[in-house]
Write a structure and sequence with these properties.
The chain has helices at 2-12, 14-18, 22-30, 34-42, 46-53, 58-67, 70-79, 82-90, 94-101, 106-116, 140-150, 175-180, 204-214, 234-252, 267-294, 296-301, 309-332, 341-373, 382-413, 423-446, and strands spanning 133-135, 159-163, 169-174, 198-199, 218-222, 228-233. With 451 residues, it is mainly alpha-helical. The protein is elongated and about 95 Å long.
Length: 451
């Protein structure tokens, strides 16, 4: 057994592996089979285990916790940053969370339960209670000694947080400011009482806005009464930004947001998330067939009109999807608010007109040039057909652009996520209405000739 273990150490090149970044180590171990992955993980040094574990996907994390002994699990969770540990627990079954928390020391168990006690989407769930604080009456020397004493466990040393007797936050001081001050000065002498903070009840979405607004790498978290309870660092906020953007992209692509990554999502869950939206879109597209049935007589009299249906409705859907994408993103970064709907409408009407005119001219020329070159014979009314397609493109692209830009505002007014105005939904809406516009213009221009 010892010989086999030595062989495994040699093949894995454990010494070289331990010198890599934890994320790189997780990638190497993730490529092994289950038995080798567990063994390789167990051979890592204690504190490195905790760091590497946070970079595994949820499936691998759950697998390891079930395979590891109680002592190894306890050591790993004990050494893990509280915010990382809470994030892991959020995705585990309740029974596994309970078993894992019971392995912690009393101090760490109290921290874990406290963080899990906050609302699920609150910023407090991802904060860490490890930070450096000071009193305003301390000397700079006392503050620096406090940093040396507790700094090793702190999440970051960028700022020192000054609190009063009731532990309420009254200022945050950059570490550089303390280092440049005279040791006999008081902390209060370098304070300006200018600070920004998050509250425990604030949502993660709101916290992202605060980080962006104040351009901070770390922000303190206070209770409703102003008591300092923790800090949130940008690495945790960046993870939340990635999750938010992923969810919005998935919704905009026409499916329900996935709780886990694509690779961790079970097949049946993936099908369920996609099938519901596809069914709604399918039912919507059935209206397109109904619209074509309504204009069946016109199509029978002028079969040539049917040739341009895919061209007409796809142009409208594409212009609508473009507009929806621009507006949803502008809303996401707070560039636009619900009160800006009139400004957007005016701008998109002009954009739609110009875009429709461009495509209309191209469509008109395509029909005329194809007739002249002999590629296709559209008959004696080729100019009327070309005008019908040209004017239809102007109208449908204008309508698509207007619809795509206004639907996000309507959803926001109804307190729904604008990202759900997905490209497929906009395209489906414009497909149905586009046919009505197309055949209405055809009836106006071709009645008495082809119709």
């Amino acid at each position: 057994m010892a010989k086999a273990l030595d062989t495994f150490r040699t093949n894995l090149n454990l010494d070289d592996l331990n010198s890599k970044h934890p994320n790189d180590i997780a990638e190497v171990l993730g490529g092994l089979n289950e038995k080798e992955r567990v063994l390789g993980f167990l051979l890592l040094p204690g504190e490195l285990k905790s760091e590497v574990f946070t970079y595994f996907n949820y499936t691998t994390q759950e697998e390891l916790l079930k395979k590891l002994g109680s002592a190894d699990t306890a050591e790993m969770l004990e050494n893990m940053a509280p915010d990382d540990r809470t994030e892991i627990f959020e995705n585990f079954p309740d029974l596994l969370i309970k078993e894992s928390i019971n392995l912690l020391s009393d101090e760490e168990k109290s921290i874990a339960l406290n963080l899990l006690g906050y609302p699920e989407k609150s910023i407090a769930r991802i904060m860490t209670p490890y930070y450096i604080q000071a009193k305003k009456g301390w000397t700079i020397k006392q503050a620096l000694n406090n940093i040396r004493r507790y700094g090793k466990k702190a999440e970051t040393l960028n700022h020192v947080y000054v609190v009063d007797k009731e532990n309420k936050l009254i200022d945050d001081i950059r570490i550089g400011k303390l280092l440049m001050a005279d040791e006999e000065q008081t902390v209060e002498s370098v304070m300006d009482y200018q600070f920004v903070s998050l509250t425990t009840t604030m949502t993660r979405e709101e916290a992202i806005e605060q980080f962006d607004k104040y351009d901070r790498a770390v922000m303190p978290v206070v209770s409703e009464s102003g008591v300092l309870v923790g800090i949130v660092t940008f690495d945790d906020i960046f993870d939340e930004i990635e999750r938010r953007d992923t969810e919005d992209i998935q919704k905009f692509g026409g499916l329900e947001a996935l709780e886990l990554s694509y690779t961790d999502t079970p097949l049946l869950t993936l099908v369920r998330k996609r099938a519901s939206v596809l069914m709604i879109l399918f039912l919507g597209e059935m209206l397109t067939a109904s619209a074509m049935g309504f204009f069946e007589a016109e199509i029978e009299q002028a079969v040539v009109l049917a040739l341009f249906i895919p061209l007409i409705i796809s142009s409208g859907g594409n212009s609508g999807s473009q507009a929806a994408t621009l507006i949803v993103r502008a809303m996401a970064i707070k560039e636009l608010g619900i009160r800006d709907w009139w400004y957007v409408m005016r701008k998109e009407v002009l954009s739609g007109m110009l875009l429709g005119l461009i495509l209309g001219v191209v469509g008109f020329l395509r029909i005329v040039l194809w007739q002249q070159a002999g590629f296709y014979d559209y008959g004696e009314f080729v100019w009327l057909i070309a005008l019908t397609v040209g004017f239809s493109l102007i109208g449908i692209v204008l309508w698509g652009t207007l619809s795509g830009s206004m639907i996000p505002f309507l959803l926001r007014l109804l307190r729904l996520d604008p990202a759900t105005s997905s490209a497929p939904f906009v395209a489906t809406l414009v497909d149905v209405t586009g046919l009505v516009i197309y055949f209405s213009i055809a009836a106006a221009l071709l009645t008495g000739t082809l119709l």
